[in-house]
Amino acid sequence: MHRISQASTETSTRLDLHRVLDALPDAVATAMQAVFPDRYTPELAEQIASDARARLLGAYPVTAELRGAEWMARWGCPPWCVNDHTAPTSPDWHTSAPVETALRNIDSAHTDRENAQIPFLAARTVVVNDKPQAYGRETRVWLDFGTATGELSPAEARVVLDALRRFTTDFESVVERAARIAEDDFEGDPEIARLDREAEDRRIVTRTAELKAEADALLAGERA
């Protein structure tokens, strides 16, 4: 029941937004003439409406449904496709807007700034139907985990979903155990740490010199 209700709400939101976008120019012109008659011009009203439209579209994915029936027929888009097929680098396949975690990537090999650009997890529906008579039609789930992507069939995605549900329970036990163990953690002594680093640096320099001397001696022996 919840899924049906959620789908109905999402469809209603898309259709309502479509109506708002269609009504926006007339609404802005009417409002300006009523509130700011001295400043009203058709050009200014159109500019304000265009800006409002851009802001609204920025808040919602620009789906094929919002682009209209002509667009959907031309590109073979399902209603939820967010690809702009007129872009030079746009693919032929169709994709939904991604759902993603608010948590950003946590890869220790990347900087905080790099991780902030990537969600920890993201997923989308993809349909490939280019020349279907020849190559068929394929529906996939793309699951992004950091910078990697898994291209899954719906059945494979279901297996991953079930695994994630089981994993969260086990992961919770790991986190709780780590939290208890971390109660005994403590900061080290900065001065001792400095002395240790300096000693390590000296050891590396000494060992590097020894290896170089051994290599020079070996090379000299070969030349002799």
What would you note in describing this structure?
Helix content is 60%, strand content 11%. With 224 residues, the protein is α+β, with helices and mostly antiparallel strands. Helix 1 runs antiparallel to helix 2. The termini are far apart.
In short:
With 224 residues, the chain is α+β, with helices and mostly antiparallel strands. Helices cover 60% and strands 11% of the residues.
Outline the fold blueprint:
Blueprint lengths: L1 H34 L6 H18 L4 H4 L1 H7 L18 E2 L3 E2 L11 H5 L4 E8 L3 H4 L2 E8 L2 E5 L1 H28 L8 H34 L1
Name a few traits of the molecule.
60% helix, elongated, 224 residues, alpha+beta, five-stranded antiparallel beta sheet, 8 helices, single chain
Radius of gyration: 30 Å
User: Tell me about the biggest sheet?
Assistant: 5 strands, antiparallel
**What's the end-to-end separation, in Å?**
88 Å
Per DSSP E runs of 2 or more residues, the count of β-strands stands at 5
Q: What percentage of residues falls in helices of 4 or more residues?
A: 55-70%
Helix/strand order: HHHHEEHEHEEHH
